[in-house]
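cron nightly-structures :: item 1 of 1
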Amino acid sequence: MDYVAFHREPPANLATMVVAFGGWIDAGEAVTGAMRYLVRHLSASHLASIDPEEFFDFTKVRPVVRLTADGQRAIRWPRSELWTWKPPESLAGMLLFRGMEPHRRWRTYAKLLLDVAEQCGVQRIVSLGALLAAVPHTRPPRVTGNSTDPQWQALLEEWGMYRRSRYEGPTGIASVVLDAARRRGMASLSLMGQAPHYLQGATNPAVSRTLLTYVTRLLDLELDVSQLDAAVQAFETRCDQAVAQDTSIQAYVQQLEQDYDATGDEPARPLRDEDLNPEKLIQELEEFLREERGGEAQ
């Protein structure tokens, strides 16, 4: 594990790992946002980092300069981090991972991650994802799932969210990791949220909250996600204000609402790359949301 830096001795009794990759399947930053909340509110302990040098093109994902409290400049590199969490009443715990999708050496990267998982005793993996889809922001986010574990699959079917994947085409690092995990005998479950495609430039806490709701049910976690309610309400208010600026946008969102209501629990078709060509009205909507976020930051 030449590229893994451990900050302490890894435990050997963490049966479950939850993974969240930024990039390909992180629409609205819902996945990395959910993992950030999970780590913070479980008070998880930092375990290890994967060195980005061999896996990232820094001209595509550039390091960021930040000023420290004493005014010194510090460079922050793309991060791939692992945390551990163990509930006080049990010996069982979880390994948590969050990182950007790497640009190269995916098989080596997947092996490193799974080697750490095996060292920690991981037997099953929960992968979080979010894709852009033709859904409105005015309705509850949909989440679908599938699993290689019969018990988990039965739960997904009971909850009415199991969907057998029929997708064929380009894939992401999460699929590569889960395929390698299957060959090691590890069970896995994937949860996929759906974010409105016309808000592709906006952070979406609503999808994060929904993903976390299912994770807590699946893993019997005592995690309060209500602290996201204010962020979700603010997000929906900004979206409503943006939509109100243009009758064309209003009509488009109303059509999405009708389609959503008509299909019931059926998932919307995730959009392909060639679908993601927002028209002028969508560009104006995103510009409005960017200006709103900029105003809040000042």
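cron nightly-structures :: done
The chain has one domain: 4-297.
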